[in-house]
Each structure stands twice: as C-alpha cells, then as structure tokens.
Amino acid sequence: EWSKLYLAHHWPVTVCKDCQDPPEYWTIHGLWPDKGEECNRTWHFNVTEIKDLMSDMRRYWPDVIHSSLNRTQFWKHEWEKHGTCAATLPILNSQKKYFSKTLELYQLVNLGFLLKAGIKPGSTTYYQMAAIKEVLTEFYGITPKIQCLPPEEGEEAQTLGCIEFSFTKELELRTCTEPKEELSVCNDTLPVYYPSQVK
Ligand SMILES: *[C@@H]1O[C@H](CO)[C@@H](O)[C@H](O)[C@H]1NC(C)=O
Ligand SMILES: *[C@@H]1O[C@H](CO)[C@@H](O)[C@H](O)[C@H]1NC(C)=O
Ligand SMILES: *[C@@H]1O[C@H](CO)[C@@H](O)[C@H](O)[C@H]1NC(C)=O
Ligand SMILES: *[C@@H]1O[C@H](CO)[C@@H](O)[C@H](O)[C@H]1NC(C)=O
C-alpha cells in the first residue's frame, strides 16, 4: 500500500536522447505512487478514454525521452506501471481521472514561475543549488526534490534534469524526503547548469 505520490517534471533539453526541438518548458514525466508497480496487469491502457485530454497531453506530457516511440506508448507505460497502482485512490481510479488529475496538479505547481524568479535556462549560466532551492522553497513552502545529471568527465557542473513534488493521498504538497531512481539528487556543492539547448 502506497502512502504518497510523486509528481515528476523533467527538463526536456536535459533528458532528451534523440529528440528534436524539445519544448522549452518543464513537462510531466509522471505521477508515481511511492510503492508498487504494475498493480493491475489486466487493466490495459486505452487512449480513447483520454481523448478529451489530448491537446493538454500532447503539450504537457510529451515523450521527450524517446522520440522514436510514439507518445501513446509513453502514456501506456505510465498508466500500466504507475497509474494502475495510483488507482486505489477513488479520485484516481480511472484512466481519465489519473491523467486529468496529473495535468491539474502540474498546472497547480506550475514551474513556469522559475523564469519570473530569475532562474532561466541558458548556455552559459550556472546556478548555485542554494539559490535554486531557496526560490523553490520560498514559493511552495515545501522543498521539492531536485535531480541532476552528474558532471561529465572533466567537467565541474551538473545539469538540472528533474524536479519532483510529493503529495499526500489528500493531494496536499509535502516536502520530498526519499531519493528515487534515474537521475541523482543534485549535489549541493556543485554549480548547476540549466541548459537551453541540447548538447
Ligand atoms: C483490474 O482491472 C480490471 C479491468 O479494469 C478490473 O476489472 C479489476 O477489478 C481490477 N482488479 C483490481 C484488483 O483492482
Ligand atoms: C476503450 O474506451 C472506449 C471509451 O471508453 C470504449 O468504448 C472501448 O470499448 C474501449 N476499448 C477497449 C479495447 O476496451
Ligand atoms: C503507438 O503505440 C500504441 C501502443 O503501443 C499502438 O497501439 C499504436 O499502434 C502505435 N501507433 C503508431 C502510429 O505507431
Ligand atoms: C559533491 O561534490 C563534491 C565535489 O566534487 C564531492 O567532494 C562530494 O563527494 C559530492 N557529494 C556527493 C554527495 O556526491
């Protein structure tokens, strides 16, 4: 039984592998319960159930990691791996509810404010972790988890990749505590590169 949900936003420029023209705004990776995967293998993804959400899905939840897969496959993966587990909660117990609630939480969190707070992507800009954390913590009243790609060989800066918010079952924001998979939690002492272009 899971107890909290992570809403993961990724920075397309950083996570894109072979994509073209990644969006220049934070997009959704997924809404993930903290425990469990593939909780119901007979509950298949059906894109028709979310057809009303299609324009927001395309805009805010594109597959920016694997451009070769079609976007339906990315949503199918997210539903089957995470959505079927989240669905124990009545407000998330259908594909329509799971995807629309995720879009709603994404809009609520709205990382677009980073720009207004002066944290902007650029090809020569580096930030201190403390500065990014301060802006986020001040704005949300909680601390999200900030993840980076570690510095490449011979480089000093890590690259900003993912910001995760944690929600209770009542969908209240809470401070993120536990690290989780993929990228690693940004190192507080290294500068942070927030790229505007794919390398
Ligand atoms: C799994 O999904 C199927 C198809 O939607 C549903 O009939 C069944 O009740 C679900 N099982 C559980 C344990 O939720
Ligand atoms: C997919 O969802 C639509 C709309 O709810 C439904 O009419 C259709 O039967 C579903 N398809 C499958 C294969 O379950
Ligand atoms: C995209 O992926 C889905 C799910 O695997 C599949 O049903 C569909 O046919 C694919 N569409 C294209 C255009 O390849
Ligand atoms: C953070 O980076 C510094 C400088 O490279 C290194 O000494 C330290 O071990 C790193 N900390 C973690 C937790 O990786």
Automatic annotation (TrEMBL):
Chief place of localization: endoplasmic reticulum
Residue numbers annotated as active site: H29, E78, H82
Transit peptide recorded as keyword: no
InterPro entries named in the record: Ribonuclease_T2_eukaryotic, RNase_T2-like, RNase_T2-like_sf, RNase_T2_His_AS_1, RNase_T2_His_AS_2
GO cellular component labels: endoplasmic reticulum lumen; extracellular region; lysosomal lumen
Subcellular location: Endoplasmic reticulum lumen; Lysosome lumen; Secreted
Superkingdom classification of source: Eukaryota
Keyword Lyase: yes
BP term (GO), one: RNA catabolic process
Single GO molecular function: RNA binding
Catalyzed reaction equations: an adenylyl-uridine-RNA = a 3'-end 2',3'-cyclophospho-AMP-RNA + a 5'-end dephospho-uridine-RNA; a guanylyl-uridine-RNA = a 3'-end 2',3'-cyclophospho-GMP-RNA + a 5'-end dephospho-uridine-RNA
Keywords annotated in UniProt: Disulfide bond, Endonuclease, Endoplasmic reticulum, Glycoprotein, Hydrolase, Lyase, Lysosome, Nuclease, Secreted
Gene3D superfamilies: Ribonuclease T2-like
Pfam (any one): Ribonuclease_T2
EC primary class: hydrolase
Its EC number(s): 3.1.-.-
Family: Belongs to the RNase T2 family.
Descriptive protein name: PolyU-preferential ribonuclease CL1
